[in-house]
Structures are given as structure tokens and as C-alpha cells.
Write a structure and sequence with these properties.
By secondary structure, this protein is an alpha+beta fold. It is built from 3 helices and 7 strands; from the N terminus they run αββββαβββα.
């Protein structure tokens, strides 16, 4: 599993969660063009942590999802605020309960090897990423108190092989054999 597989799978998963709501969302990766509301943007952020034993490693990556619910200009700001709160709850429940082939606090991961970054297709499901923590926040637009944005932060962890493809330097075994010869 690569970080790109995780990011694109998270995008697909967020789209499935938001499809359960009232609006039809356009879910984008951070590198795609932003469109009009309702839309969501999924992106990796911060440092990636690599840890684990010799042959496998756990990779932990923080992600953030910005959701821009539709705004009804005729409604009172409190109506749009409640809509944003419902969207935040929908996201949190979708992650904690699971949708698609997902499980509670698990995000299904599909292979995107050889698939163009803007293509909707994916390969087979190749595993799950564990949700290590998540938080939601509803933010009001500083310029318009009737416009809200929902932010979901989460840390995902997945296991990967710790093989050292392409590494041509000495390994611990080779170093130990050299010491035995001396």
C-alpha cells in the first residue's frame, strides 16, 4: 500500500459517506481544482511516521478533510450552522461505524497502481487503514456568518513491507560476515 493508495481510497470513502446526506458532493484531492459548494477536499498533511519491526513497518499519516456544505442564502445563519453540524456528525458516524466494505474505524484501501490520478477507476481492494484518531470542527466564514465549513482531521495507520527495494549497500548480514572474515 502506498500513501497515494491511502489518499485516493480515503477520497472514495469520504464520497460514500457524504452520499448518505442531503447534498451531492464533489470530492476532490488537494491537487485538483476547487469547484462550487457542496464539495469536499481530502489531503494528506504533516509528517509521516514510520515505525515497526524488521520486516514490516507501520506508517502513520495525518489527513484532513474540508467539507463545504451548500448554503441557502434565504435561510437564517442558524439553519446553515445546523446543516454543517449534521454534516460533521455524518462524517464522524461514517468513519466510526463504517460504510462500503469499511468497518468501524477502518478505511478500505484499493490499489491505484497504474491508474491516472484523475481517473475514477481503481484496482482491487488490498487492505484496510486503521483510524488512530479523528476530530471534527465546524468553522464559520469570517466574512459571512451564514457560511460554514466542516473540517475532519484523522490519523491513519497501515502496515507495509519493510523490504529495501533498490538498496545496494551492505546489509547487517553482509557486515557480520565481513567481521567474521577479519
Amino acid at each position: 500500500m502506498t500513501t497515494e493508495d491511502i489518499l485516493r481510497s480515503l477520497k472514495r470513502y469520504v464520497a460514500a459517506i457524504l452520499d448518505q446526506g442531503d447534498d451531492v458532493y464533489d470530492v476532490k484531492l488537494n491537487r485538483e481544482e476547487y469547484t462550487e459548494r457542496p464539495m469536499a477536499v481530502v489531503r494528506a498533511l504533516g509528517d509521516t511516521l514510520f515505525s515497526g519491526p524488521r520486516h514490516t513497518m507501520d506508517i502513520t499519516q495525518p489527513f484532513e478533510i474540508f467539507v463545504y456544505p451548500s448554503v441557502d442564502e434565504a435561510d437564517e445563519p442558524v439553519t446553515n450552522s445546523l446543516k454543517a453540524q449534521r454534516t460533521a456528525q455524518l462524517l464522524a458516524e461514517g468513519v466510526t461505524a463504517g460504510v462500503l466494505p469499511g468497518r468501524s474505524m477502518r478505511i478500505p484501501v484499493w490499489s491505484y497502481d497504474g491508474v491516472a490520478w484523475n481517473a475514477a477507476a481503481s484496482g482491487p481492494q488490498i487492505g484496510f487503514a486503521r483510524v488512530e484518531g479523528l476530530s471534527t470542527q465546524v468553522m464559520v466564514d469570517p466574512d459571512d456568518d451564514s457560511v460554514f465549513t466542516v473540517m475532519l482531521n484523522m490519523r491513519l495507520t497501515w502496515r507495509a513491507s519493510a523490504d529495501r527495494r533498490g538498496y545496494t549497500g551492505p546489509t547487517a548480514t553482509a557486515v557480520n560476515q565481513l567481521q567474521d572474515l577479519q
